[in-house]
Design brief:
homodimer; 341 residues; four-stranded parallel sheet; elongated; six-stranded parallel sheet; DNA-binding; alpha/beta; 15 helices
Chain lengths: 341, 341
DNA sequence: TTCTCTACTGTGAACGCTCACAGATGCATG
DNA sequence: CATGCATCTGTGAGCGTTCACAGTAGAGAA
């Protein structure tokens, strides 16, 4: 029976050593880089490993090394915002794969409720993972401080706001992306450019608004607070904000909306108000989410390099675990021109 | 320094025993259910645990018990289909949380490429996880057989197709959901009811089509193969299929589309063809994805109980790990009436 | 009283691995 | 020829836990 066969006690390093005619120590050395091992011994061990189907017991290894060779992907969102965000999927997938390439499993942790937060922190602080990939958008997240205090290597996705602790992070250049979009709107002849912001307790929200302001100034357009409407990244808030803008400033000819989801809502609002896009009002989004392709007109937007963000997060975290100091990595964005602007 | 403090060697069971004035054995017993422990001893141990901040070292425990107290969430999709599926997010999140409630971490594994498949199987077969939550839609997936052969407890999401092995699974009642929808279309007076199917190498695709066929027969409508157009769950395929249907059978007055994403595409196709929904053609979707709310008209669809599917998957897997035989769990769906039908 | 049974407690031995160290070998150097 | 050094190898100890077992105390039965 194959079931019975695979159920028998798996080979240990001892079995391999006996099979290869060497000592445990030599096998262990082969397993860990092969330094100070003669070619003959290494060959014998490799063959023995193949014959016995040996796979290292990570628990035994971890017990003595004190490392777990695993990493947590920690989501500290009270809302389910992130799970609805298509970018989040890309991030999670790419991180998983980047880690898998180094044979490091990813533990998915969700700390929505206070109870989950306690549980997960306990787990992490107990040293059951070597490091944490942190996705926490909101300002002053206590988890960030706790992890830092516990001395656990952390790399955040996006600059953690309201933190005194020095935390490494990887982020897209939100400000520069916003600049690109607003410059693009300006270049196409628009002069009354409004914006719908993201939540201003998130780095993206803050930075994109800053980029918008800077570019208006740079282009010599007057700063006009009535052209700024707050949103919370949700579709509905985009719709509301767009309506509010139309009311306050009916003469706008362009809107930079800080997320595609909100831009979708804005497109609807404009359609209902009888404004044509892009003829009457140009609309620029942010994220290049799949939805940006299915709107009518399709959405001109800013692409964030999620694949690179993920690989950089993993790289930075592993470096951090290896003892390097925390670092910030900012990656460039890209303007994607479609029909809406 | 708090950093220094938290960096010092964590408390072991030994420290707790000394602090509580008992032996290791007694502490261990308290940790594992507290049987055969006097109330006084238990109180002393609990207090000592609190004072020392002791957290069990899972590696040491696993080393001797042979169990890892962790579970893999394995995705074997060549395509990135699942990561674009909003349902997948719900599934992953709910599974994570259901497991977290039992203090069992979830390891996310993606086996898209052959290399990833090998790596992950090696990891799982080495006994590094106690069980696997499997998401694998396509027929005859070799991973399913491998896992079964290795004797690893597995629970699949959706009935695994083309498997001789007896695998436990949890699924929504796709067939019954399809029946509900078609009955609903019939009840609203439609008599030329077409369907856009899902991929027919997935359980959902097969079952939903079967439900469609059964209900037509039940209602005394003729079986007409020209009313059946294949899709692959993608938005584009829904659009194509709807266009093909219009050409082959211009007189259709309703379409049951096997997924919301495809239904979105179909709505577009109908809009372009100048057909009004629901006046000329009623459209029913499947999934109740977030997108179903943002279409115009909003989409009548079938809701799958993803929360329950997730908790049942976890419950079933834990039971399986505890030694129970594999079981199939089928959960009821629900018709969600909106504007499109 | 003596025996048995139950409830509880402590102890040594694992689990499979890495690490530090000691020992061995070969080769170049003084 | 002795010495040093680099390369390679084996051994014992120990990581923190659970498990099996031996042992103790107290209650109840004979």
């Amino acid at each position: 029976m194959s079931t019975a066969a695979s159920r028998r006690r798996p080979a240990t390093i001892h079995d391999v050593a006996r099979e290869a005619g060497v000592s445990r120590g030599t096998v262990s050395r082969v397993l860990n880089g092969g330094h100070y091992v003669s070619p003959t011994a290494k060959a014998a061990v490799d063959a023995a490993i193949r014959r016995t189907g040996y796979v290292v017991n990570r628990h035994a290894r971890s017990l003595i090394t004190g490392k777990s060779d695993s990493v947590a992907f920690l989501l500290t969102e009270p809302q389910e915002r992130f799970f609805e965000d298509p970018n989040f999927n890309v991030l999670l997938r790419a991180c998983t794969q980047a880690l898998a390439a180094q044979d490091i499993p990813l533990l998915l942790m969700i700390a929505g409720t206070e109870d989950e937060r306690r549980r997960n922190l306990r787990y992490i602080e107990a040293g059951h993972v070597d490091g944490v990939l942190l996705v926490s958008s909101h300002s002053g997240d206590p988890v960030v401080a706790r992890l830092h205090e516990a001395g656990v290597p952390v790399v955040a996705c996006g600059k953690p706001l309201g933190q005194t602790a020095k935390i490494g992070y990887v982020a897209a250049d939100d400000r520069d992306g916003a600049r690109d979009m607003v410059r693009h709107l300006y270049a196409s002849g628009r002069r009354r450019i409004a914006t719908v912001t993201g939540p201003l307790d998130t780095p993206g929200g803050v930075e994109r608004l800053a980029g918008y302001r800077e570019t208006l100034a740079e282009c010599g357009l007057p700063a006009d607070e009535t052209l700024i409407a707050p949103g919370d990244y949700s579709r509905a808030s985009g719709e509301d904000a767009a309506r509010a803008l139309l009311e306050r400033a009916p003469d706008i000819d362009a809107v930079f909306v800080a997320s595609d989801l909100m831009a979708q809502g804005a497109l609807d609002a404009f359609a209902r108000a009888g404004r044509r896009v892009p003829e009457d009002i140009a609309v620029g989004g942010f994220d290049d989410s799949p939805a940006a392709l299915s709107t009518r007109p399709s959405l001109t937007t800013i692409r964030q390099p999620w694949d690179r963000i993920s690989t950089e997060m993993v790289r930075t975290l592993l470096a951090r675990i290896a003892g390097e100091e925390p670092a910030a990595v900012i990656l460039p964005t890209e303007l994607v021109r479609r029909e809406s602007a």
